[in-house]
Design a protein that fits this description.
about 0% strand, about 80 residues
Amino acid sequence: MLHPSYNDLMNIVNSEVEPGEELLVNSRYSIVIATAKRARQLILGATAKIESEDLPKPLSIAVQELFESKVKIISDEEEFDNE
């Protein structure tokens, strides 16, 4: 079993969304993709935003970073605006 659960991660990520705005993550697929992208960043050398001595794998670190709100998911539209 994944800990934290998909639902817990989705609730945390969407907790910063203002009422009436579109949710950042609205499916398990979305949270998996976001976590995989962060894990790939870690594999390529990005610095972890949490203490990770007990988390040996990049995917575990990525999940924990999302759970602790240490990284933020941005929409594709925001990504293009920042470039």
